[in-house]
Each structure stands twice: as structure tokens, then as C-alpha cells.
Amino acid sequence: MIRTAIVGTGFMGRVHLEAVRRLEFVEAAAVVGRNAEAARRLGAGFSIPTIAADYSDVLRDPKIDAVHICTPNAQHFPMAKSALAAGKHVICEKPLATAVEEGEELVALARRQGVRNCVCHNLRYYPMVQQMRRMREDGDLGEILIVQGTYFQDWLLYDTDWNWRVDAKAGGPSRCMADIGSHWFDMAEHVTGLHVTSLCADLHTFHPTRKQPKHSVETFSNQLGGPEDYVETAVDTEDFGAVIFRMGEQARGSVTASQVSAGRKNRLSIEICGARASVAWNQERPDELWVGHRDSGNQILVKDPSLLKPAARSYADLPGGHSEGYDDTFKQVFRRFYASIRTPDEVPEYPQFADGLRQLNIVNAALESGRTRGWADVPTMVSES
Ligand SMILES: NC(=O)c1ccc[n+]([C@@H]2O[C@H](COP(=O)([O-])OP(=O)(O)OC[C@H]3O[C@@H](n4cnc5c(N)ncnc54)[C@H](O)[C@@H]3O)[C@@H](O)[C@H]2O)c1
After folding, report:
1. In the list 38, 121, 161, 383, which could disulfide-bond 351, CB 3.0-4.6 Å?
2. CATH number, span 2-121
3. Given this model, what pLDDT does residue 243 score?
4. Which residues line ligand 1 (CB under 6 A)?
């Protein structure tokens, strides 16, 4: 058994813990939470042997092999750095850090330490997203011409909606682009095999101030009473971003990300137009893939492992007609991550810190472009997965 610790007991802490519990060869051995009562409740519910308030306790524990960092973004860099220094394998939630320099340091340190490292761009691992990727690899789409899409949510629509992500000190200088735009760009690059080379971004904050609760709130759990419960607080992160970009030599694209789009709960949509065919996929209908043709009827492919490209089949565990969703993507990432710990010579097949650094570079370019109102280049990097 590989023994692992989950750090953070909010939305992602629980999702990671449940996904780890679905793996045969991994033991969720510890839960770490700043809020002792929340950690005790989560850990007790899953009969986790160790519940710690102090992160350094698990780093000192030689029986812990790996950690999952599920804390607010600004904690990722110091927590990942100390875990790597302690020789632990690390799964870090996205974004990898809040600044490019931090990401570069983590990538270099992980290499020096020779440990496995993963940044949780789990959305790549929906079966139909893998189907798009394998169709592109097999040449079914032809040369990629256009990549476009949206990532829309509505949970920060009102000025009474608050979360640590709103505050740049906890979430980093970008909110919408770093929080959800990074998932979209990771998917676009993963499926097309191309890298964004330059972009032009328009970022906007519709609520220059928000009502910040006086008590802390966890993700998706905002409940505000009267004026005595909140402080009117200036907002320094964006609610919205529209980006046009260039990919590889030839491809062009655009994406719009928003956390203030009423009714759109978690709508990542992506459409890729190639010289031979197009594909379109939407996270709110994950088992369906639209395939567009010029000279014959368009198709809707429905997830069924027996009908997927052979290389995409291992991402679908259930037969056709049995949906696989958001939770399952974590299982797919973690399964591959932990398998790679047992087979040190194998090339990792999951998003690594280097991929997280790519996203930091894209977000950074979007911030720069938003400031200068012009195009910004995205530094070239070699992808590792
Ligand atoms: N991969 C995905 O699909 C996905 C989805 C949502 C969030 N995320 C990422 O997961 C991370 C956590 O987000 P969330 O939505 O779970 O937030 P959350 O607010 O629900 O939970 C954060 C948790 O971290 C704890 N925490 C804060 N500081 C801590 C510390 N120093 N030590 C231990 N615990 C500490 C808080 O008490 C809380 O329990 C973020 O980086 C976010 O970007 C990823």
C-alpha cells in the first residue's frame, strides 16, 4: 500500500479523499485541516487513522509517501515546496502556484528530488475528452484550424457572493482565468497537442466591491445575513476574461471564462475545427461528443468503451449507458499517478508540475495583456505529458 495524506478539508479535500478511497493500492492515512473540527469530522467519517492540524506532522512522518494539497491557491507553493523537500510525492490542486517564478521553482525542485508530481487538471480525463484527443492523434480531424469555447459558472454572480478566491492574497492575482480558464487551456492544449504561443485578453471585474462575510466561508457554501455580517470590500481579481489566442504554427482560437453567468453552473465547452472534421464537447453533457462533417451527416457519439478509440478506452470504466462524470476524472488521474510511483521507469501519463507551470505562463500573459491592452507572448516550454 502507498500511504497518502489529504491536506485541506473543503470541497476538494473531500473529493480527493473519496477518489483515493476508490484505489485498491492506496491508503488514505491522514487528513490535515486548519479547522480542527472540520478535519475531525471528515477524517472520522472515513475512519482515517491520523487527523492533524499541523501539516509539518505529516511531512515528518516517514510512513506517509504522498500528499494531496487541496488548500487555497496561495498555500500551494509553500506546501508543495516543503513536501518535495521532505521527499514526498505530491498531487497539487490547480493552479500550481500564484506566480510563474514559484511554479518554476517547484518544477526544478521536483526534478531534483526525483519524486512524482501532479497538478490536478483532472478535466482532461473525461472519456469523451480522451476520445477527442485520440481522434486528433489519429488524424481524423486533420490540421487544427480553430479552437474555441467557454468556461462559465454563476456562483459569484451577486456582490453578496464571497470566497477566498475573490481575494488576491489567498487566490493569486488572477481569479477567473487562473481558477477555471486554466482548466480550459489545459484541455485545449492536451487535446490538440498544440501550445498557445500568444494571446490578447480583456479581463473585467463587474463587482469592484463585494460583501465579505466576517466569518470564513468554504467554497459553494456562502450564507449571508444582514449588514452586521459583512464588510464592503474592494475586489482585486477578475470576474470575467475573454481571450483570443494563437496556437502552434497555424491555429487560432478564442475562449470566454466567467463566474457571473446566471444558470451556467460549470459549463466548460470546447469546439475544435480541423481541416477534415470538427468536434465539440460540453462538461454539462459529458458522455456526448459532437462530430461535425462537411460532406456527410454530423454525428453524436455516446460514451461506450467498446466504441471509443482503443487508446481512450482505459478512461472509461463503465459500460455504455452508465454515465461517468466529474468525480471519476479524479480517480483516473490518481490511479495513474499512484501507478507511476510503483513503476519508477514509466513515463507519467497525467498532468505534471510542468503542465501547471504552462498554465501559470498563460495566466500571466493574460494579466499582462489585460494591463497593456495588447498581445502578449507565452513562453515556449516543453510539455511533459
Ligand atoms: N480540480 C478541480 O476541478 C478543482 C475544483 C475546485 C477547486 N479546486 C482547487 O482546489 C483548491 C481548494 O479549493 P476548494 O474549493 O476545496 O476550497 P475550500 O475553501 O472549499 O477548501 C479549502 C480548505 O483548505 C483549508 N485550509 C486553508 N489553509 C490551510 C492550511 N494552512 N492548512 C490546512 N488547511 C488549510 C480550509 O480550512 C478549507 O478546508 C484550490 O486551489 C482550487 O483551485 C480544483
Report:
1. 121
2. 3.40.50.720
3. 98
4. 7-13, 32-35, 38, 55, 70-73, 75, 93-94, 120, 122, 164, 179, 218-219
